[in-house]
């Protein structure tokens, strides 16, 4: 299955391409949300995501270019730079913001959500930042694989997870042949950020998400200089409800979380400071981005 990411225009005319969730494909392994953004001439007004809530999931921010400031209700404040990973666990409840503080020539990166398994959805909220230097890399013939989560070719990411995940960032030259083993019990997908690849004769172009069929190996032919990611892992069991910024067991639980947010019952973000002049505090579209 190959799906082109749907283009969305957020306030400030910031464009994201949303690959998950889709009507045709709700999730891949534990990954329930996937946004790709690649914009130039970014001001604080153009990228300003005010404090907003989450429950039952983890947000994962990974940049190729640019710099974003994360601030949350645990009094954590962290600049994320290219190659670093911000991994936030909402658990029972967290509030956070994402902002550009100073003008950026380019912001290019990915925002994904990982749904927590049922037994872990009310875990304590947490935030961890991982420097790019701690992520293992695999150097092949014409390609480099960075292991963000899970394991690949004997290299294991140091990032702890609540379920088996796969998250690989692959930079490859035209003509490279990228092959490695896969767990046949995992659900996997490939998303192309830049360039063009081929999988078993099927062309996967820039902004395409390709849901892979079952198997014990992955084989990618690189048709042009490319950057693509592989995501997935063990299937997320039911019941799983995705509603606004929440992952819950039932729609009633998710709607109650919405009521709690509107009633001011979620934790505040004391360190939050507004750097832009844009008034988007009531805009749910921009909140849902991150």
How would you describe what is shown here?
The chain has helices spanning 251-262, 284-289, and strands at 2-4, 6-10, 14-20, 31-42, 48-54, 57-65, 68-72, 77-80, 85-89, 94-99, 104-115, 126-130, 137-140, 143-149, 151-152, 155-156, 165-172, 177-181, 187-199, 202-205, 208-211, 217-233, 241-243, 246-248. Mean pLDDT is 93; it is low at 285-290. The radius of gyration is 18 Å and the shape is globular. The two termini are 26 Å apart. Strands 1, 13, 14, 17, 18, 19, 20, 21 and 22 form a 9-stranded antiparallel β-sheet that branches. Strands 2-3-4-11-6-9-12 form a 7-stranded antiparallel β-sheet. Helices cover 6% and strands 52% of the residues. It has 2 helices and 24 strands. The chain has one domain (2-233): Jelly Rolls (Sandwich), CATH 2.60.120.
SSE arrangement:
Layout: E1 2-4, E2 6-10, E3 14-20, E4 31-42, E5 48-54, E6 57-65, E7 68-72, E8 77-80, E9 85-89, E10 94-99, E11 104-115, E12 126-130, E13 137-140, E14 143-149, E15 151-152, E16 155-156, E17 165-172, E18 177-181, E19 187-199, E20 202-205, E21 208-211, E22 217-233, E23 241-243, E24 246-248, H1 251-262, H2 284-289
Antiparallel strand pairs: 1-21, 2-3, 3-4, 4-11, 5-10, 6-9, 6-11, 7-8, 7-10, 9-12, 13-14, 14-17, 15-16, 17-22, 18-22, 19-20, 19-21, 19-22, 23-24
Search tags:
2 helices, 7-stranded antiparallel beta sheet, 9-stranded antiparallel beta sheet, disordered C terminus, mainly beta, 52% strand, 290 residues, Jelly Rolls, single chain
Count of β-strands = 24
Q: Could you name the CATH homologous superfamily? A: Jelly Rolls
Work out the radius of gyration: 18 Å
As for the number of domains, it is 1
